[in-house]
């Protein structure tokens, strides 16, 4: 061992003695001790800035044809598709838990899908039958329906495919007509997720012209071309159908100013509330929308977000319940007025 090594070793072994001139903590902080209000559970609760309540929850509900059928979604542990009769029972359960609203998404039989998604216009399609049945049994719960064409098309896109292109204006005309059909069935909120230009204004006009001025529009104002949608596409049966991608109409994940322009346009066309999708990777968008427009703002904690938490919890890598609650509280902190989440029943029971 050389002299340098002996000196370093001795220094490491010797305890450090504070200098006589060292300032006290009170001198450093000016007497401001920020831990004071964190010292006890009661004081932490007293100063908590954001809270998650059951009133913040919207439950996405997957639908299938048939009777007395429940099909678990393999990629989404704890989530199932339900036939209309069982969907009614689930809606009754959500109402008992105090959840204000549900959002329905159908898995349409392949035989009823075509290039234009024409079955979306059928007054007796799966979405409309479920809406009528749920409203008859549970009138107090809100029903949110989507008019995007992806559950109805043979190619898995949200609009009509012509010569390799998703045609905007023809799609807008069809989804506006479908929105009227959903309102007739009893939908309280139309939530167009297709991201076509002009869709919100066309839907507002169509609803108003048919006497549905009271039906609101929740705009998927900022829906991004995300990698987090995979389990959802399995749930509605479009995962293996999609030809190409959706980048020509969904937002680029790199863009925030564009997201604001989309939201501003939708509000100008008559949107009553805004939605950001996906959720956790886009909390900055939530904050910007809330700060910019001060409108009711929602986020969709999408299937990939849900499944990641579930998978990590199943493997013992994280505490699933704590991660679930923390993730949802993050939406509130970012400015959300409500959250679409597959965790809704679990959270409502815990709350």
Automatic annotation (TrEMBL):
Pathway linked to the protein: Porphyrin-containing compound metabolism; protoporphyrin-IX biosynthesis; coproporphyrinogen-III from 5-aminolevulinate: step 1/4
Gene Ontology biological-process annotations: protoporphyrinogen IX biosynthetic process
UniProt binding sites for Mg(2+): 262
Pfam families named in the record: ALAD
Documented EC number(s): 4.2.1.24
Keyword Membrane among UniProt keywords: no
A molecular function GO annotation: zinc ion binding
Reactions performed catalytically: 2 5-aminolevulinate = porphobilinogen + 2 H2O + H(+)
Alphabetical UniProt keywords: Heme biosynthesis, Lyase, Magnesium, Metal-binding, Porphyrin biosynthesis
InterPro entries: ALAD, ALAD_AS, Aldolase_TIM
Family: Belongs to the ALAD family.
Subunit record text: Homooctamer.
Name of the protein in question: Delta-aminolevulinic acid dehydratase
Taxonomic source organism: Nitratireductor pacificus pht-3B
């Amino acid at each position: 061992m050389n002299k340098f090594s002996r000196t370093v070793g001795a220094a490491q072994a010797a305890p450090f003695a504070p200098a006589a001139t060292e300032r006290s903590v009170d001198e450093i902080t000016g007497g401001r001790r920020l831990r004071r209000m964190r010292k006890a559970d009661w004081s932490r609760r007293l100063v908590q800035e954001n809270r998650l309540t059951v009133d913040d929850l919207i439950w996405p509900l997957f639908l299938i044809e048939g009777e007395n059928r429940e099909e678990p979604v393999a990629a989404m542990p704890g989530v199932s598709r339900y036939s209309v009769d069982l969907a009614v029972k689930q809606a009754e359960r959500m109402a008992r838990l105090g959840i204000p609203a549900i959002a329905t998404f159908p898995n349409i039989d392949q035989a009823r899908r075509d290039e234009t998604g024409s079955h979306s216009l059928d007054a007796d399609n799966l979405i409309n039958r479920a809406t009528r049945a749920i409203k008859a049994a549970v009138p107090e719960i809100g029903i949110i329906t989507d008019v995007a064409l992806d559950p109805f098309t043979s190619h898995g896109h949200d609009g009509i495919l012509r010569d390799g292109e998703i045609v905007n204006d023809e799609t807008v005309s069809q989804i506006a007509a479908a929105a009227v059909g959903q309102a007739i069935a009893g939908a309280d909120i139309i939530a167009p997720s297709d991201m076509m230009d002009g869709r919100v204004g066309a839907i507002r006009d169509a609803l108003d012209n048919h006497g549905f001025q009271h039906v609101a529009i929740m705009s998927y104002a900022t829906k991004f071309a995300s990698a987090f949608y995979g389990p959802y596409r399995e749930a509605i049966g479009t995962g293996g159908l999609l030809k190409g991608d959706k980048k020509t109409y969904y937002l680029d994940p790199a863009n925030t100013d564009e997201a604001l322009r989309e939201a501003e346009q939708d509000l100008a066309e008559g949107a009553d509330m805004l939605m950001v999708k996906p959720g956790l990777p886009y909390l900055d968008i939530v904050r910007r929308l809330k700060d910019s427009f001060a409108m009711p703002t929602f986020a969709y904690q999408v299937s990939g977000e849900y499944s990641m938490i579930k998978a990590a919890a199943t493997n013992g890598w994280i505490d699933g319940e704590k991660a679930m609650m923390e993730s949802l509280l993050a939406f509130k902190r970012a400015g959300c007025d409500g959250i679409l989440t597959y965790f809704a029943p679990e959270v409502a029971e815990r709350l």
